[in-house]
Amino acid sequence: MYLALATAQRPRDSGQNEPGFWSSGKPATAVATVMAMKLRASLFGILILITATLPIGAGERISMRVSPAVAFAPANLVVRASIEADEQNRVMQIVAESPDFYRSSEVQLEGDKAPRTSRIEFRNLPPGTYDVRVMLLDSGGQQRASARQQVNVIASAAGH
Question: Which strands make up the sheet holding 143-154, listed edge to edge?
Answer without folding.
Answer: 70-72, 143-154, 128-137, 91-98, 101-108
